Structure formats: C-alpha cells, structure tokens
UniProtKB/TrEMBL annotation:
This is Radical S-adenosyl methionine domain-containing protein. One of its GO terms (cellular component) is mitochondrion. One of its GO terms (biological process) is porphyrin-containing compound biosynthetic process. Its main location: mitochondrion. It comes from Hipposideros armiger (Great Himalayan leaf-nosed bat). Belongs to the anaerobic coproporphyrinogen-III oxidase family. HemW subfamily. Keywords: 4Fe-4S, Chaperone, Heme, Iron, Iron-sulfur, Metal-binding, Mitochondrion, S-adenosyl-L-methionine, Transit peptide. One of its GO terms (molecular function) is 4 iron, 4 sulfur cluster binding. Residues 34-270 form the Radical SAM core domain. SUPFAM superfamilies: Radical SAM enzymes. May be a heme chaperone, appears to bind heme. Homologous bacterial proteins do not have oxygen-independent coproporphyrinogen-III oxidase activity. Binds 1 [4Fe-4S] cluster. The cluster is coordinated with 3 cysteines and an exchangeable S-adenosyl-L-methionine.
C-alpha cells in the first residue's frame, strides 16, 4: 500500500512534468490541443479471473499463475505505443476492466497510470474506474487501489440471492457483495457503481424486484442492470440446451426491466443509457465517450478501440482489436510495441451505423456532437463529446421494451 501511495504521488508529479513539457511542445505538435481527435478515453483489459462464471464469454483466462511483472510491462508498453500512434494529448478517463482487474496488484494499476501521465495529459480529476469482484475481505485492497489512482469502482454484484450466485458460478455470497459495497462507498463516496443481472433461468419478477429494492438501501449513485445473454460455449448455455435448466423467459425479463426502470426512476435515478442509471450526476464519463462515438484506445488482450491514427496522410477513424490470447499478445507487444490484431478503417456507412446505434442507447439520442463523427469530414477531427449532464430525452432505445430488454441490456463491448 505504501508503494502504491508513492506511485500515486509519482503519477501526480509525472503528470505535472509532462504537462509542462507538453505546454512547451504544444505549438509544435498542435495548433488546437483541445480538438476531439487529440482527446480519448483509455480502456485497459486485465484478462485473468479466479474462476469461470457460468454465463460469461468475455475474454478471460484462469491461469495457474500470473506473470504479473511481464503483463504490467506489456500493458505499459502498449499504452505508450497507442498513445503515440493516436497522437492523443489528453486522456479523459481510464477504465480497468476484465476479466478481474481487482486481482491485479495496485502497483500494476499505478504503473500504467504513471506511464499514461508521462506520455500525455492525464487531468487530476480524470475518472479512473476499476471493476472489482466482491470478496469477503475487501478493505485494504480497495484502499490500495485508491492510493494507486483509482477514483471510481464498478462492483460486479450480479445478484443478492445466494442460490442465484451459485447458479452463476460466482465466488462470493450476497453478504460478501454487500460488505464490499459498503467498504467501497466508505472509500469512494459517490463514485461506486453496481452491476445487477436480470432474466436468469427460473428468476421471477417479484423476488427480483425485491432484490433491487433491497439494493437501493445499500447502493451508491450508479446502478447498471444487465439482462442475461445466454452465450454459446458457456456452462449456462449448455445447461439450458440440455434441459437441466429452463430457458430464461424473455417476457419476464422485459417485465423485470420495465419495473426495474420505474423503481430506479422513483429513487431519483436518471436512466442515461439502456442499462445505466445514475443520480446526483454520477454518470460514467468513460462509457459516455463510447456512446457519443468519442475516441478510445483499448490496451490489453482483446481490448478494442476507435481512433484516428496519426500516420502520414491518414484521416480515417479505425476500429482496432488487440490479440485475444494473453501469452501471444505479450509476445507481440515485446516484438512490435503493441498487440494490435485487426485494424478496420471505418467508412461513412459504418460511422453512421455507429453514431445511430450508440446514440440511440442514450437518453440524449443522436446529438449534433455525435453526428459530427459522420459529418465532420476527414478524421472526424472536430469531434467533441456531448455533455453527459444534458438531459433532453430524445433517444434511449429503452422506449422500445422489446429491443432493449431482449437485445440491448449489455455493455457496449459486445
Ligand atoms: C465481464 S464482467 C467483468 C467484471 C468482473 N469480472 C465481474 O465479474 O464483476 C462485467 C459485467 O458484465 C456483465 N456480464 C458478463 N457476462 C454477461 C452475460 N452473459 N449477460 C449479461 N451480462 C453479463 C456482468 O454483469 C458483469 O458485472
Ligand atoms: C460491462 S461494462 C461495466 C460498466 C459498469 N457498469 C460501470 O458503470 O462502470 C464494462 C465497460 O468496459 C469497457 N469494455 C469492456 N470490454 C472492453 C473491451 N474489450 N474493449 C474496450 N472496452 C471494453 C466498456 O466501456 C464497457 O462498458
Ligand atoms: S463475469 Fe467477471 S469474474 Fe466471472 S468469468 Fe466473467 S470476467 Fe471473470
């Protein structure tokens, strides 16, 4: 923890030095340091988990042992490379997702933030989220992540029913989850999110709503409701396919979702995206950047990103996907400085599709800012991200219950 504290101070010091350097270099590197193409969100993928949950098909591995120093060094290298290739001068949010990034050491988190602060401007108030799995002893680790620079936690609570948690293959109980949540709120007041799943096999509307209402007694200012997607290749999928469990009923899931939205609205939450609810302005600025088609860099195995590479003559926004398998990804990073597996230049039609699909997920709909990705000319350089505090409800595919409850209550990474 002491080490993490030192690293956090080093990050702040490095951030100041980097800021001074950039001011000096500013005139050379850019005439408009605040323009959209020079700002980005940064996603960092930690690909390891303790155990495979029965429903999950995210890019995750259950290792015998993790070579953390090697992984840390590769994440740092890839962040430096992609920041250079993208010409990004200001990182506006960082998201450590996974896998289970709360299994990484706080030292790793601090080292990545430090590298980012040295390579670009990382504002002191930048949103830095870490996904944390509930444990029976959350205290000191969470505070060490805080000392490393994390200032927002997303807790994968999933359910407050122990039988459901077992069905999902989780390693924690409902009481562990509540304890982790309480500890997280103590350490990061106003900046804790919880993920709650709905539409599980055998789940009924009434008991699920009681869980949600119980959660309201404990939660902070951000809640994500994710409808279960039965993913091919998962244990749960096989159990349902073989008849060991009933298939989730989509109409019940739609009812849970609609009733859940109403409960959260009454409790003062704004539904700012199909699956996401915030009060007191606690929206996730990181995810908001995705939905507004802002730039984001994805580092780590299987991470994806969207940015305009600063190559000679290039003005095209690209979708980039990093190599999935951690060992292969590490070898590539050691050889080339990055493990980018795919680069897909996005044409006008693809950009338009993204603007529509992302914008309609939110309550502000298709904004002028979002559509500037499509209309903004070469490289979408004029792109700015709409203010998440704006609240004119024009989009929200949620107004179509079938569309949202059956297809869209997942995160934007799928
Ligand atoms: C991939 S997990 C990573 C965070 C962390 N490892 C955890 O399990 O809490 C992020 C979130 O995605 C959601 N998720 C994962 N698989 C899902 C599925 N098949 N259907 C719906 N939501 C899912 C869960 O709510 C989970 O909290
Ligand atoms: C399942 S969501 C959970 C978010 C959580 N409910 C919150 O409010 O912070 C995880 C987020 O991580 C990011 N993400 C996950 N996997 C990613 C990947 N492979 N590449 C880029 N970003 C990813 C996306 O921003 C996604 O919304
Ligand atoms: S849900 Fe989270 S903890 Fe479970 S396997 Fe997926 S990434 Fe790992």
């Amino acid at each position: 923890m002491a080490l993490a504290g030192v690293r956090a101070r080093a990050w702040a010091a490095a951030a100041k030095i980097a800021q001074r350097q950039r001011r000096a270099e500013g005139a050379e590197r850019s005439r408009s340091p605040e323009s959209g193409s020079q700002r980005a969100a940064l996603y960092v993928h930690w690909p390891y988990c303790e155990k495979r949950c029965s429903y999950c098909n995210f890019n995750k591995y259950i290792p015998r042992g993790v070579e953390e120093a090697a992984m840390r060094s590769c994440l740092v290298t890839e962040a430096q490379t992609l920041l250079r290739l993208s010409g990004v001068q200001r990182v506006e949010s960082v998201f450590f997702g996974g896998g289970t990034p709360s299994l990484a050491s706080p030292h790793t988190v601090a080292a990545i933030l430090e590298a980012v602060a040295q390579a670009t401007h990382l504002p002191a108030d930048c949103e830095v989220t870490l996904e944390a799995n509930p444990t029976s002893a959350p205290g000191s680790r969470l505070s060490a992540f805080g000392a490393a620079g994390v200032n927002r936690l997303s807790i994968g609570l999933q359910s407050l029913n122990d039988t459901e948690l077992q069905l999902l293959g989780r390693t924690h109980s409902a009481s562990d989850a509540l304890q982790t949540l309480a500890e997280a709120r103590r350490l990061f007041p106003g900046r804790v999110s919880v993920d709650l799943m709905l539409g599980l096999p055998t789940q009924q509307v009434g008991p699920w709503l009681r869980q949600l209402k119980e959660l309201l007694h404990h939660c902070d200012d951000h809640v994500s409701l994710y409808q279960l997607t039965l993913e091919r290749g998962t244990t749960l999928f096989t159990q349902v396919q073989q008849g060991a469990l009933p298939a989730p009923d989509p109409d019940l899931a739609a009812e849970m979702y609609q009733e859940g939205r109403a409960v959260l609205r009454e409790a003062g939450f704004r539904q700012y995206e199909v699956s996401n609810f915030a009060r007191n302005g606690a929206l996730s600025t990181h995810n908001w950047t995705y939905w507004q088609c802002g730039q984001y860099l994805g580092i780590g195995p299987g991470a994806h990103g969207r940015f305009v590479p600063q190559e000679a003559g290039s003005h095209v926004r690209e979708a980039r996907i990093q190599t999935l398998e951690p060992d292969i990804w590490m070898k590539e990073v050691m050889l080339h400085g990055h493990g980018t597996r795919k680069r897909i230049p996005l044409g006008k039609l693809e950009l338009l599709e993204e603007v529509l699909a992302m914008g309609l997920r939110t309550d502000v709909g298709i904004t002028h800012q979002g559509s500037s990705v499509f209309l903004g000319g070469p490289g979408c350089a004029g792109l700015t991200v709409a203010d998440p505090a704006a609240s004119t409800p024009r989009g929200l595919a949620a107004e179509s219950p079938l569309l949202c409850a059956r297809r869209m209550t997942r995160c934007s990474c799928t």
